[in-house]
Amino acid sequence: MRFRGLVYRAHNPQWSWTPLSGEGARRHGGRFNQRGISALYTSLTVLTAIREAQPLGRPIQPLTLCAYEVDAEPVFDALDEEQCLAFDIEEADLACHSWEAEMLAGSVPASQALANRLIEAGYVGMRVRSFAIGSSLDDINLVTWKWSASRPARLTLVDDEGRLSGR
Fold first, then answer.
1. How far from 153 is each of 72, 117, 148, CA to CA, in Å?
2. CA Rg value for the chain
3. Which residues make Cβ contacts (< 8 Å) with residue 105, sequence separation at least 6?
């Protein structure tokens, strides 16, 4: 599918000065990327982005909220049951609640293995529901593994006033 629209990310301020780098995910790994693979985790709403960045039970930590304009394809739609069936993807592969523990133990969690398969198949990203604590089925994320300033995987920071670029 082709994804076009605005997405949001609540960055740790450590990465806010390089909001297009994917460096944090590359260094540390994430639910849908192994260490060494850059990824941008974004959400379709501001509240979902904040939920993703602030685990419940902890006090709110400083964040830098950014918006991005996206026009990218092909994007795998994990909300589409037929696409999931075609790739033999189950809900447990997406949710993969133990992904972090598995990764830290040295294995490749099902969610990262799934992302590897999608990247190998040529997908630049995936639309997937949020699995953050407190999220609902309406909370949707867009994870991108490949992006640039132009199509077919255009992802640009909305920063008309140059607040992050130092202009």
1. 4, 18, 6
2. 15
3. none
Contact 24, 14 (CB under 8 A): yes
Amino acid at 77: D
Is the distance from CB of 43 to CB of 128 less than 8 angstroms?
Answer: no
Amino acid at 159: D
Between CA 59 and CA 76 the distance in angstroms is 34
**To which residue do tokens 């990327």 refer?**
33
pLDDT in tens, 37-92: 999 999 999 999 999 988 766 788 889 999 999 999 999 999 999 999 999 999 99
Q: How far from chain centre, in Å, is Cα 41?
A: 2
Cα 104 from chain centre: 20
Q: Quick: pLDDT tens for 101-132.
A: 999 999 999 999 999 999 999 999 999 999 99
Domain boundaries, the chain: 3-155
- 153, 124 in Cβ contact below 8 A? yes
